[in-house]
Design brief:
single chain, about 220 residues, alpha/beta, Rossmann fold, 6 helices, 6 strands, globular, binds iron/sulfur cluster, oxidoreductase, phosphoadenylyl-sulfate reductase (thioredoxin) activity, PAPS/APS_Rdtase, metal ion binding, EC 1.8.4.10
């Protein structure tokens, strides 16, 4: 893919792909394995991921032979958080849920991006209203580096056609009606016709705002 090759040529070795091993991200991994192998693969292990995510992570390691740098939360931060608020604080309030995401996701992502000049994501425009204005190449204000979104124009159908045509390993939860997969306690299957992100933090009733925090803008569910 030309954009990936451009990103690699311009920024390697200071460029990473932050891979969640969801459908978009395994497509991106396959594309990187074909044409941009100098891009470093990083992933965040929040400590609360479903087993199926670890399974596809290992399947991709075997398939592509690319090293995957795994970033975990700071143990002392997690210990202090659960000591004060319990293991399932994310159910107590939006504030506590965001605190959990900050410690288990944002802080490890900051470490993964530290010293880098650019990162690659599998974000697609049609995933959320807040992503309508996103471009294929952006300045990531939150992290102060360049951000490449090579799949920005892809549809969900494009993603699945690519996975099928190229026999790309994917998370088994997608076959159980999980279009968007995060931590196990914060992800559920959705019903036919529901918004693809309705399975994330579904107990929050804040005007449909489902903020993951990994990308600069909050994710607003499409109505
Ligand atoms: S998705 Fe849930 S378990 Fe995972 S970091 Fe966020 S609040 Fe914590």
């Amino acid at each position: 893919m030309a954009l990936l090759q451009q990103a690699e040529a311009e920024f390697a070795p200071d460029i990473v792909f932050a891979c969640s091993f969801g459908a978009e991200d395994v497509v991106m991994l396959d594309l990187i394995s074909r044409s941009a192998r100098a891009i470093t693969i990083v992933t965040l292990d929040t400590g609360r991921l479903p087993q199926q995510t670890y399974d596809v992570m290992d399947a991709c390691r075997t398939r592509y032979g690319l090293p995957v740098e795994v970033y975990c939360p700071d143990a002392a931060e997690v210990e202090a958080m659960v000591r004060e608020h319990g293991m399932n604080l994310f159910r107590d309030s939006v504030e506590k849920r965001k605190r959990c995401c900050e410690i288990r996701k944002i802080h490890p992502l900051r470490r993964a991006l530290a010293g880098r000049k650019a990162w690659v994501t599998g974000v697609r425009r049609e995933q959320a209203d807040s992503r309508q204005q996103m471009a294929a190449i952006e300045d990531d204000v939150a992290f102060g580096i360049k951000k490449f979104n090579p799949l920005i124009e892809w549809s969900q159908a494009d993603i699945w056609a690519y996975i099928r045509e190229n026999d790309v390993p994917y998370n088994a939860l997608h076959d159980e009606h999980y279009p968007s997969i995060g931590c196990a306690p914060c992800t559920r299957a959705i019903a036919v016709g529901e918004d693809p992100r309705a399975g994330r933090w579904w107990w929050e009733q804040e005007e449909g705002v489902a903020e993951c925090g990994l990308h600069a803008s909050p994710i607003k569910r499409k109505s």
